[in-house]
Amino acid sequence: MGATIDPAADVMTLINVFTVEPGRQQELVELLAEATEKAMKHQRGFISANIHKSADGKRVVNYAQWRSRGDFEAMQKNAQAAGHMKAAAAIAKFDPIVCVVASSHTA
Amino acid sequence: MGATIDPAADVMTLINVFTVEPGRQQELVELLAEATEKAMKHQRGFISANIHKSADGKRVVNYAQWRSRGDFEAMQKNAQAAGHMKAAAAIAKFDPIVCVVASSHTA
């Protein structure tokens, strides 16, 4: 299981950087994984969510892909998805960056 | 061309979030692409660099993969690579997050 980053693919990328209270990184990782499986994954336009944890224990980054910005915004209005994000917001600050792939370079 | 995000792969991920002066986003994208092609790509352990630009014009995010943290740190000491990063630092602030993939969820 995994996602592909491809500048030629017509997808919207959301890079969400969470800053988490010390000692609660793993809890946030599990919360986001559960939110993805229970809510986001079943919304129209969901492609992938890839949850990363920082080596310093202070951040969690979700690299997520949606078919379009419209699909992503519709998900944000979904009550179940919003409930999960509220639970994440209770233990972390987050900085969501809506973006597109400009270029990809491989070895 | 593209990269794969896979929690089972033994790679180090660097998510570098650049905050750029208004109007200089494209310049930074090109600078990072050139730095990758000319310097980073030729360093030991380089796997991929994936440069994203935010819809609001204020950020650039480089999602990069290295074989190990040791390889990444060796690259940072490389004079040519350091020169490119200094040029990026002249027009943007950056927040590099060293991390690993905790989980990946696909549609």
Briefly say what this structure is.
Two copies of one chain form a homodimer. Chain A is of the alpha+beta class. The first copy, chain A, has helices spanning 25-38, 69-77, 79-89; strands at residues 3-5, 12-20, 46-54, 59-66, 92-106.
Describe the overall structure.
Two copies of one chain form a homodimer. Chain A is α+β, with helices and mostly antiparallel strands and about 110 residues long. Chain A has three helices and five strands, in the order ββαββααβ. Chain A has a four-stranded antiparallel sheet. In chain A, strand 3 and strand 4 form a beta hairpin. In chain A, helix 1 (about 25-40) runs antiparallel to helix 3 (about 80-90). The first copy, chain A, is globular, with a radius of gyration of 14 Å. The interface between A and B is large, with 45 and 45 residues. Strand 1 of chain A pairs antiparallel with strand 1 of chain B.
The overall average pLDDT of chain A, rounded, is 95
The number of distinct β-strands of chain A equals 5
Largest sheet of chain A: 4 strands, antiparallel
How many distinct helices of chain A?
Answer: 3
Q: Determine the N-to-C terminus distance of chain A.
A: 22 Å
Helix and strand content put the structural class of chain A at: alpha+beta
Most extensive interface between two protein chains, with residue counts: A-B, 45 and 45 residues
Query: In which order are the strands of the major sheet of chain A placed?
Result: 3-4-2-5
State which percent range the strand residues of chain A make up: 35-45%
Ranges of chain A with pLDDT <50 over ≥5 residues? Answer: none
Q: Which range best describes the helical content of chain A: under 10%, 10-25%, 25-40%, 40-55%, 55-70% or over 70%?
A: 25-40%
Instruction: List the secondary-structure elements of chain A in sequence, H or E.
Output: EEHEEHHE
Computed over alpha carbons, the radius of gyration of chain A is: 14 Å
